[in-house]
Amino acid sequence: MSQGTPDSVDRGQSGFQGQYGTPAAAGSGAGVGPDPSVGAAAGAGTGPASGTGAATGAAPAWPPSTPPAPAGEEEQHPSSRGFWVMITVLAIIALVVFAVLLTLGSSNGRFGGSAAPHPTATATAPAAPGAGQGTPGQGGLNTTPGPVETRYTQLATDRGWVAGQDYIPTQPDEIRTQLQALPQLETASGQTAGDPKAPVHVTIYSDYACSFCNKLHAESVPQLLELANKGDIYLAYVQVPIFKDTVSSDRAAAAAHAAGLQGKFWEYSSLLFDGAAAAGHDPDKAPSMFSDENLDAYATQLGLDVEAFRAARDSAETTSFIAAQESLGLETLGLRGTPAIIINGTASTGYQPLTAITNTIELEKALVDAAS
């Protein structure tokens, strides 16, 4: 969507201290973001996103101006080819980063001490010649695909689905492994739904001031919550407040987390998104969008203990936790925009329609079933 980046802040490894445990495999440098030389939203998947540029510079423009792509269409970004060159380098660097992650602090009960136990999918049939080969920006390298990527693509082909329209193309096998080794939000964070032992993990990376995040939330989260409640998926929401320097979206993130500690994270998130939409993305209204007055009003509306809510929202622990989530998105994954979504080993940046998300969940579940 828009280019630019939040003002320069320290988003280095210090963001992990006391927040993340040790992943079971290389869990950094997964490379969902684009070529850092291009300040546009891009990545492993398709669809528009609210973008940030390099790690430092001017704050991203707000309100967003680019309309989302219609359902079933995908947006190719000019940095896609550079992205896939970068991804191969990151796959090597990940081994070094993993060694660094092993030295990080222990979990504080909000991020797991290790990656969640995603079942490891294995191919159950020989790869068809050329099957699953991706193109830059569509979830695959222009090389011979691994067995899991090949099987994933074949499952989609068997269903008559079109990549980038009906489902999200997956990543090469080595990247899938890294994505599934990322630190996981624990239920104690208040920002999850479902059973962590569910076969498919769905993690959304989002900012409450992002209109594409709003669209994704409104269209997809209600059904995703249903799937979580049925035990089909484990749903988690990671806060990446890229608009914190323009509309204080980090305050909204802290408030949502505080509401989550009282069991109302998803309801509170809906109120935040509704409030942003009601402001009509008017720059004159933006500064007060996430004012303490509005944040308290949402807490009252949901019947929360407002005093406890305020204390949690304004605590140093919550501030640190939000910063750790931001670091996970911007530094570990290399995101340059929101929203982004990771479904087991498949990642996408930008808005995705509900059908593409649920179909991708089906494909990932099929991989797990075939491996069990």
Task: Spell out the key features of this protein.
single chain, 372 residues, alpha+beta, 7 strands, disordered N terminus, two-stranded antiparallel ribbon, 12 helices
Task: Write down the Rg.
Answer: 19 Å
The low-confidence runs, each spanning 5 or more residues with pLDDT under 50, are 1-47, 52-109, 113-142
Multimerization state: single chain
E-strand count: 7
Number of helices: 12
Task: Name the strands of the widest sheet in spatial order.
Answer: 2-4-3-6-7
Structural class: alpha+beta
- What is the overall silhouette? elongated
* Share of helix, binned: 25-40%
In whole angstroms, the N-to-C terminal distance is: 41 Å
Average pLDDT rating: 72
Biggest sheet, open or closed, and with what strands and sense?
5 strands, mixed
Report strand %: 5-15%
**What is the N-to-C order of secondary-structure elements (H for helix, E for strand)?**
EHHHEEHEHHHHHHHEEEH
Biased composition (Pro residues): 61-70
Keywords: Disulfide bond, Membrane, Oxidoreductase, Redox-active center, Signal, Transmembrane, Transmembrane helix
Transmembrane segments: 83-104
Family: Belongs to the thioredoxin family. DsbA subfamily.
